[in-house]
Design goal:
18% of the residues lie in helices and 47% in strands. By secondary structure, it is α+β, with helices and mostly antiparallel strands.
Length: 143
């Protein structure tokens, strides 16, 4: 039996870009409704807002370009900021990529603006899952 995953972008909450991946317990014959998805995302958002925070530092900041195929196999360029942070939890020094939490865009300028706002060395606030400290969200208003 194949596992199913849902991916949702909540948006920016208190300066934190939030993306949620939810594993479904069993395969569904049809996708979840908008109301079901909204409920899952709202619950995840509330959970993440309670996660502890720690100070972190940007250790990598670049724009990744990807080529995808759109309608009629037309090639589309997509750009995504790739930000990696280093932080400490419980005396352990950890690092995690934050690029999964940034959307992709066909606007290279937007991606470059994000990277310029978060240069290597910038101090940021990191929210982390206390059960899995390698799962993080970077507070975009910090630093």
């Amino acid at each position: 039996m194949a596992e199913l995953f849902l991916l949702g972008v909540i948006g920016v909450v208190a300066g934190i870009v939030i993306v949620v991946v939810v594993r479904l317990a069993r395969p569904r014959s049809r996708p979840p409704s908008f109301e079901q998805m909204a409920g899952l995302l709202a619950s995840a958002k509330e959970t993440m807002e309670r996660w502890p925070t720690t100070e972190g530092e940007v250790i990598a900041s670049t724009v990744i370009e990807r080529k995808t195929h759109g309608i009629r196999l037309r090639v589309i360029n997509e750009y995504q900021p790739q930000i990696e942070v280093r932080y400490e939890v419980g005396g352990r020094l950890l690092s995690a990529p934050a690029n999964a939490y940034f959307r992709r865009s066909s606007d290279a300028g937007w991606a470059q603006e994000i990277v310029e706002r978060y240069p290597v060395g910038r101090r940021v606030t990191v929210r982390y899952d206390p059960e899995r400290p390698s799962v993080v969200f970077v507070d975009l208003d910090s630093g």
